[in-house]
Each structure stands twice: as C-alpha cells, then as structure tokens.
Write a structure and sequence with these properties.
alpha/beta; 9 strands; globular
C-alpha cells in the first residue's frame, strides 16, 4: 500500500493491539525451573518497543496484547508498560477483539493490530491498520496494510508506534518532551486481564 494510504489509516487509530511471541519477542520460548520444580516460561522483551508503547499511552492511545499463550511474564510486561488490555490463552482472537471494542466504544477501523502468524490473520482483516512484522509468515504479510522493516522483538512494535504518532502529528510534542526531559506519568488505570485455556 502507498505510504499516503498507510498514513491515512494510522491517523485514525485510537487503540493498538498486538500479538506477543514473534512480535513483542523474537519468538523464542525459554523454560526455567521454578522453586517448586515446575517449569516457568520466560520471554525476552525489547526495551525500544517498550518506550514506543509507553509513548502511545502518554499521548492517549491505549494498547494491549492478545496472545495464544498464557505466561505470567506477558501479564507482568503489559502492566509494566501501562497497557490497558492483556488477553492471554486465546488462539482465536476475534472474541477478545469484540470484547475490547465494546469496552472502548470504538469501531474496528480505529484499531491497529500487529501480528506475525496465521492466527492473527482473521483479526488483521477486520481492523483499520493491520501490520505484520518482517519475520511474519508470507500469508500474514499478504493480510497486512504495512510490513515493518524490523523483525519482531527487534523494534518492530516501536516502528509501528512511531508511525502512528507521526501520522497523527504528535511527533513535535514527543521531541519537545525529549528536549525538556519531561515524560508525563501514565494515568495508572488498572489493566484488564482475561485468560483462557485455549492456549498453544
């Protein structure tokens, strides 16, 4: 899609949702032994992506994750970044999307979603700005309006965050905060966490 079309879509975005594994991370899963002998799932997140998500929140654009896996590290990271939604254990992502749209009172065209695999495609076909990371499957890229230059877990989410903020004319305010070393606190609204047993 031409850059002008992407910017037009990004300008309308009021909410950013994303997958986790392969998008916020590089897709690798690490399992470490817990004190009780069980295995704990650990993920590696990129700090650059985190800054982008926090910038969205500062400028009034909430964010959230919809993921097929139910890992404590995902919920912890979402809370740390001031995300508004964490739906975990959902391989089918349409029900979480419908629930979030109802809670926010917005239309699908006002949502950006970032994905990397087949389970993301149904949701991507319904939102206003569908983004696929560089390492996404070919089918997922075909369903996207925008494919990032960066790979998942390596700044792809930040790329989308910056695209939205710039398209909405927020970048001068971002840079003003940079110059003045002023970073407003997020409102601290409690995160909505929903879990399902339909994980993979």
């Amino acid at each position: 899609m031409p850059a002008t079309g992407i910017k037009k879509r990004a300008k309308k975005i009021k909410l950013v949702l994303m997958d986790v594994d392969g998008v916020l991370t590089d897709g690798r899963l690490y399992f470490l032994p817990a004190p009780d002998g069980s295995l704990q799932e650990v993920k590696g997140f990129n700090a650059v992506d985190g800054i982008g998500i926090r910038l969205l929140g500062i400028f009034g654009i909430p964010s959230g994750v919809i993921t097929g896996r139910n890992a404590g590290t995902t919920g912890a990271r979402a809370r740390m970044l001031g995300m508004k939604y964490a739906y975990m254990g959902f391989v089918s992502k349409l029900k979480p999307l419908a629930d979030i749209l109802k809670r926010e009172g917005i239309a699908p065209g006002e949502v950006c979603y970032i994905g990397d695999d087949l389970t993301d495609i149904p949701l991507m076909r319904r939102v206003g700005l569908a983004c696929a990371v560089k390492n996404a499957t070919g089918e997922t890229k075909k369903a996207a309006h925008y494919v990032t230059a960066a790979r998942g877990g390596e700044g792809a989410v930040r790329e989308v965050c910056d695209l939205i903020l710039k398209s909405q004319g927020r970048w001068p305010a971002v840079m003003e905060n940079v110059e003045q070393a002023r970073w407003p606190r997020l409102d601290g609204a409690k995160i909505v966490t929903v879990t399902s047993t339909d994980e993979h």
